[in-house]
Amino acid sequence: MVGIVIVSHNHLLAVGLQEMALQMAHNRVKITTAGGVDNETTGTNAERIYQAIQDAYTPDGVLILFDLGSALLSTHIAIEMLTPEQQSRVSLCDAPIVEGAIAAAIEASLGHSLEEVTKAAKAAGSNQKFFDF
Amino acid sequence: MAVSRDNLVAWIEALQQVYNENKEYLTKLDAAIGDADHGINMNRGFTAVKTELESNPPDNIASVLKSVAMTLIKKVGGASGPLYGTFFLRASTAVTGKEELDAAAVVSMFETGFSGIIQRGKAEVGDKTMVDAWTPALAAMNEALDSDASLKEVLEKGAAAAEQGMKDTIPLQAKKGRASYLGERSKGHQDPGATSTCLMLQKAAELWS
């Protein structure tokens, strides 16, 4: 099963989103977090991201969702620290973090491939939130 | 002079003081066009760097740079963490096995480190980033090297060019990072990343002479 990593500048945001996505996917998926420089400090930390990827890693791959700015640069460093084999099974996804994490969690819990999970997370970004009643 | 392992450590430890003293200044620059954390982040990062170098002193030049890199990518938090972290990590590959660095080796170390910043951040000259300080600084240092200048002269030329590059960021419109969200409104402010780079080179010019 595909694992999911949530990278955010804020620890509580990452953990809160992890909790929500796990509930939506009935706990049938592995989601890890790398939020904040540490639990108190805003920012991102490449070593924490690396650890979160290792903890979520399965041979089916890992999807990484990130929030802003330095999250992308720090995640690039974390990916460079992985083995080439692991690198080939990591998907860094440009999706809104909340919608993306929930779509990915549900898709991964259904046993879908890394490619399918990535596609679902990306598509979640273009879902309409306004409806005509 | 040639730069030894101890000279390198002295520079990095001095940078902790530099960023501590300039914490408010860098943060004020960043408040104008970014998220007001550059001074705080650089101070936190280099304070952690100094602590790490003191508690686990690396025994050679390359390993000092690597230690700095690993601490910065863990502790800084903002984009300057991965950027300066990659700078020091890449710089370490240019000095592997060296016991001391002459002027050419120092410039090669900076240049190799800078190639990491470019690769990581994908910024170009004129984007209003630290690249706008590094690029003229490296050009000036290489020009000085070509005319057989001493290390002191090379670094002084580099620091002066970095300062000019830093000031030249003021009229630019930001194309990278948080400041780019401001569009036209980013004009008229000095870039904090170019400023922290300038401070770094000025301290090297002051100490390695």
Short description:
The complex is a heterodimer of chains A (133) and B (209). In chain A, 48% of the residues lie in helices and 15% in strands.
SSE inventory with pairings:
The complex is a heterodimer of chains A (133) and B (209).
Chain A: E1 3-8, H1 11-24, E2 31-35, H2 46-56, E3 62-66, H3 70-80, H4 84-87, E4 90-93, H5 97-109, H6 114-124
Parallel strand pairs in A: 1-2, 1-3, 3-4
Chain B: E1 3-4, H1 5-21, H2 23-33, H3 38-55, H4 61-75, H5 80-94, E2 100-101, H6 103-121, H7 131-146, H8 151-167, H9 192-207
Antiparallel strand pairs in B: 1-2
Class based on secondary structure composition and strand pairing of chain B: mainly alpha
Number of beta strands of chain A: 4
As a whole number of angstroms, the C-alpha radius of gyration of chain B is: 16 Å
Largest sheet of chain B: 2 strands, antiparallel
| CATH level 1 class label of chain B | Mainly Alpha
Shape of chain B: globular
Spatial separation of the terminal alpha carbons of chain A: 38 Å
| Beta-strand content of chain B | under 5%
Sum up the structure in keywords.
heterodimer, A: 133 residues, alpha/beta, Rossmann fold, globular, B: 209 residues, mainly alpha, Serine Threonine Protein Phosphatase 5, Tetratricopeptide repeat, two-stranded antiparallel sheet, 2 strands
What do you see in this structure?
The complex is a heterodimer of chains A (133) and B (209). Chain A has helices at residues 11-24, 46-56, 70-80, 84-87, 97-109, 114-124, and strands at 3-8, 31-35, 62-66, 90-93. Chain A has one domain (3-124): 3-Layer(aba) Sandwich (Rossmann fold). By secondary structure, chain A is of the alpha/beta class. Chain A has a four-stranded parallel sheet with strand order 2-1-3-4, sandwiched between helices. Chain A is built from six helices and four strands. In chain A, helix 1 (11-24) runs parallel beside helix 5, helix 2 crosses helix 3 (70-80) and helix 5 packs antiparallel against helix 6. Chain A is globular and about 50 Å long. Helix content of chain A is 48%, strand content 15%. In chain B, strands 1-2 form a two-stranded antiparallel ribbon. Chain B is built from nine helices and two strands; from the N terminus they run E-H-H-H-H-H-E-H-H-H-H. The model of chain B has no long low-confidence stretch (mean pLDDT 97). Chain B starts with a strand and ends with a helix. In chain B, helix 1 packs across helix 2 and helix 2 runs antiparallel to helix 9. Chain B has 209 residues and is an all-alpha fold. Chain B has a single domain, classed as DhaL domain (Serine Threonine Protein Phosphatase 5, Tetratricopeptide repeat, Alpha Horseshoe). Chains A and B meet through helix 2 and helix 3 of A and helix 4 and helix 5 of B.
